[in-house]
Amino acid sequence: WANGLSAGETESSLEYAFFGIMIELTDAGQGHMEEIVEFTFQYLNILRKIGVAEWIFNEVQAISETKFHFQDKIPPLNYVTNIASNMELYPPQDWLVASSLPSKFNPITIQMVLDQLVPNSSRWQPRLMTGANKRNVSFLKDKSEAFERFKAFKALVENETAYYAEVAGLYYSIDHTGTGFQVTITGYNHKMRILLEKIFEKIVHFEVKHERFSVIKEKVLKNYLNFKFQQPYQQALYYCSLLLEHRMWQRNEFLEVIPQIEADDLMKFAPRITSRTFFECYVAGNMTSKEAESLVEHIEDSLFNGPVAPCKPLFPSQHLERRIIKLDSGTNYYYPVEGLNEQDENSALHHYIQLEQDDLKINVELELFVLSAKQAAFHQLRSIEQLGYIVVLMKRNDSGIQGAQFIIQSTVKDPTQLDIRVESFLRMFESKLHAMPDDEFKSNVKALIDMKLEKHKNLREESSFYWREINDGTLKFDRKEVE
């Protein structure tokens, strides 16, 4: 009846607070909402009868203290804004801490809150919505049906262990990529090895649970159906990727094969995922090189030396690369397409300019152009011409192929007219560049240098940079310094 459940404090002030329970229902569950509400209150009643457990409070307190003392750095603007908000709700001694740390164990207060979670003090709002540090293992791609089988596979693996890991401050995901699937683990390193072992044990000894398969299949299908409710600019970005990538399955192709896939098909498909395998790993954080090598060796042993259907390495000819279509210089390409949501009055333009393949000099020139032009583009196209609320000029990187892209969403102009305005802006800005004073140009160069020299704010940002180099196959880990 349900795909997921979350609960916790939502809106709050000095006088009141709401405790929210969000249950994501399946199609079958929507016909049993009253029973689901009844089960929810039955469970809350059980909690009231059991009483308050101090060991739960102690666990929450320990985890909260760890999160507070080892939290990542955040941008200064966000930090100041958070503290300013805390000043309205907390005494001065708690401005930095706010509600991050539990105070003292008070079973009477906790029980009082539990006693309030009854039907008479509740509001239920049925909402039916129809729309809107990394490890990598690659495997040989077959056809679109295989991708849909994989999505069900990864969802079945994820549900097993995710909750308890998240409670302890460990998070992981399994995502399909263009050439295989990727396992990502972040969080505290103390139990990371155990979580990694659990995940790969589930992958190697994968079993299909038929009762969960139908629920996950329904969820995957809805995700594809809901694509039509995404904003037009998001759909335009998808179509650009569809045109540029040498081989990319279309969403309607996925929709065609999903209904045909059954649990037995997934069970037969699972061994193929790791029958021949190549994997890449990236490890960062509070871990020695010896510990990192041990993690990699464990993955190798799980995949290649396991007792159940051990994997074999990929043949050299089976190593897959994401290939990007090269656009002819001086040629304009157009791909007009009707919006999928007839009720959305917006139009969108994605204007893409392709450059060379990961040339350091061209990369820097592109970044300097975007840095110099993005404010002028926003001012001209958004503020003066008022084409729409979404007006963006930014870099684009497709597996090492660099480019610039304009993204505009508008209710007043159609895509053809938007494209004319972008071309007009480019001609205008070219004239501005020729007339740009030397000191203004040097100021832009200095700003770009300062951006390059800026250190990564946290481990997540640093890891994203290095993993992008690995994933794209460029491996320029000193890119910032060289550029």
Tell me about this structure.
The protein is 49% helix and 16% strand. By secondary structure, the chain is of the alpha+beta class. Strands 4-5-3-6-7 form a five-stranded mixed β-sheet, with helices on both faces. A hairpin with a 3-residue loop joins strand 4 (170-176) and strand 5. Helix 5 packs antiparallel against helix 6 and helix 5 crosses helix 7. The model is unreliable at 128-150 (pLDDT under 50). Residues 68-123, 159-256 form the Peptidase M16 middle/third domain.
Fraction in helix: 40-55%
Shape: globular
Query: What fraction of residues sit in β-strands?
Result: 15-25%
Structural class: alpha+beta
The stretches of 5 or more residues where confidence is low (pLDDT under 50) are 128-150
- Mean pLDDT comes to 83
> What is the spatial order of strands in the main beta sheet?
4-5-3-6-7
What is the β-strand count? Answer: 10
Q: What is the count of helical runs? A: 16
Question: What Rg do the Cα atoms give?
Answer: 26 Å
- Measured between the Cα atoms of the first and last residue, the distance is 54 Å
What is the string of SSEs from the N terminus onward? Answer: EEHHHHEHEEHHHHHEHEEHEEHHHH
Q: Largest sheet, described in full? A: 5 strands, mixed
Short description:
The protein has helices at 33-50, 54-69, 76-89, 107-116, 144-167, 192-204, 210-225, 232-244, 251-257, 263-273, 289-304, 360-384, 415-434, 438-453, 459-472, 479-482, and strands spanning 2-12, 17-25, 134-139, 170-176, 180-187, 276-281, 312-313, 347-357, 390-398, 401-410. The chain is an alpha+beta fold.
